[in-house]
Amino acid sequence: MANVVVVGAQWGDEGKGKIVDWLSERADVIARFQGGHNAGHTLVIDGKVYKLHALPSGVVRGGKLSVIGNGVVLDPWHLLKEIETIRAQGVEITPETLMIAENTPLIMPYHGELDRAREEAASKGTKIGTTGRGIGPCYEDKVGRRAIRVADLADPATLEARVDRALQHHDPLRKGLGVEAIDRDGLVELLKEIAPKILEYAAPVWKVMNEKRKAGKRILFEGAQGALLDIDFGTYPFVTSSNVIAGQAATGVGIGPGAINYVLGIVKAYTTRVGEGPFPTELDDADGQRLGERGHEFGTTTGRKRRCGWFDAALVRQTCVTSGVTGISLTKLDVLDGFETLKICTGYDLDGQVLDYLPTAADQQARCTPIYEEVPGWSESTEGARSWADLPANAIKYVRRIEELIQCPVAMLSTSPEREDTILVTDPFAD
Ligand code: IMP
User: Fold this and answer.
1) Cα-flanking dihedrals φ and ψ of residue 297, to 5°?
2) The pLDDT of residue 157
3) Distance, CA of 218 to CA of 276 (rounded, Å)
4) Is 169 a catalytic residue?
5) Does the beta carbon of 39 sit less than 6 angstroms from any atom of ligand 1?
6) What is the pLDDT of residues 97-152, one digit of tens each?
7) Burial (CB count <10 Å: 0-12, 13-18, 19+), residue 170
8) Among the three residues 170, 198, 226, which one is the final residue of a domain in this structure?
9) Closest residue (by CA) to atom 2 of ligand 1?
10) Which domain holds residue 389?
11) Same-domain status, 136 and 115
12) Number of C-alpha atoms within 13 angstroms, CB side, residue 150?
């Protein structure tokens, strides 16, 4: 039985929500394995709009198990609010349909405060442009071995000891940033109050996942953000604080890497990025403006305007390799309708040398200029196309050229936010 990992193959916002929803209908288990409520997935089902940040997309479909794995960082207050909102939309969420790994680190209020205070204090060039949700500081506490985890909520003495350990680290940091000390007793009270509401969903996820796998259940691993924001392989330090690439699906829930049969990379037909950092094909002109307007390029989580640019085949070729992408889902092709010509970046010129990948060193990245190939556009509409026959010849040529350049086949093509407006070439769940 196939298990599928979905990863963003650019800087996030590739349109994963629709594809994940389409696949989650076919899956039995849907698991988040990294990131937190910095993510934003919009699902449109039967005309109803669901906005999810921390919850796996599977929750809105009945009869599925949704899992929050240990690779995630979880803001328990945010989660409880999100559950309430989704319940108010008529969705049932119970401990039978939602499980949270007991070893998941919790995002505390001081993580968000630190994230925002640092960003405010940062000068131009060092600002990351984070979502301000406390993601980075929580992952720092995880590897610093001072995180408060879901299982700690069960025992008041352990919980208080964990809080004290965390405060030993955070209070001096806050002092340096001019932020007042944490109200220790107030925080302990807040945690005790939410403990039973979170513990209801706590489970040994690694065990459950392996049992499901053995029972032949189909598992969908739902990635958030995009591979170019990966802590190791992204445009460091302008990245998020988790591993985003497909290998994280295994460690992020506690399953062996052999459980993964198919990696679907979600790729937008052009490029966008929110936040700071290098973006070789960024457009500051009317074409960039047009991509942003036609593509409604505003962040789901922060509402920030996304930076827009031409398709960068060199970067996607790179992320397809680091995530071992089996096939891609190409999204938002219709946004390119009406451009007379389109540009695709095939590599970079670095001081007169041609590179087929983006180098790691920041100074070299800054000196890289994109090498473009110009291809003809199309005047016809591709919006809503459901078969290759519905696409203009030049749109097909554009897609085929992308496949060649990134050395990875198109498995799905999405031509509008509607579920049915999809051309399916290969079903990732097919045995
Ligand atoms: P953080 O994840 O909040 O620490 O933000 C680090 C970087 O990742 C910033 O550039 C954010 O804009 C970016 N980022 C985080 N989550 C997302 C996402 O879901 N989509 C796109 N960019 C994201």
Assistant:
1) -85, 75
2) 98
3) 37
4) no
5) yes
6) 999 999 999 999 999 999 999 999 998 888 999 999 999 999 999 999 999 999 99
7) buried
8) 198
9) 240
10) 267-424
11) yes
12) 27
Residue 364 sits in the same domain as residue 247: no
Q: What is the DSSP string of 196-235?
A: HHHHTTEE-HHHHHHHHHHTT--EEEE--S-GGG-TTTSS
User: Which is nearest to 331 in space by CA: 372, 290, 297, 282?
Assistant: 297
Domain match, 340 and 274 both: yes
What is the residue with the minimal CA distance to atom 5 of ligand 1?
130
Query: Which of 131, 279, 282, 305 most suits a substitution to test ligand 1, by most atoms within 8 Å of the C-beta?
Result: 131
Tens-place pLDDT, residues 9-22: 999 999 998 899 89
Does ligand 1 lie within 6 Å of residue 223's CB atom?
Answer: no
> Is 319 assigned a ligand-binding role in the annotation?
no
pLDDT, tens digit, for every residue of 306-341?
A: 999 999 999 999 999 999 999 999 999 999 999 999
Does one domain contain both 252 and 206? yes
Say if 430 falls within a structural domain. Answer: no
Does residue 429 lie in a domain region? no
Three-state SS for 427? coil
Asked if residue 129 has its Cβ within 6 Å of ligand 1, the reply is yes
Point out the catalytic residue in the list 37, 142, 170, 343: 142
Q: Number of folded domains in the chain? A: 3
- The answer to whether residue 89 is domain-embedded is yes
Ligand 1 centroid to 38 CA: how many Å? 6
Length of the chain counted residue by residue: 431
Determine the distance separating the centroid of ligand 1 and the alpha carbon of 20, expressed in angstroms.
19
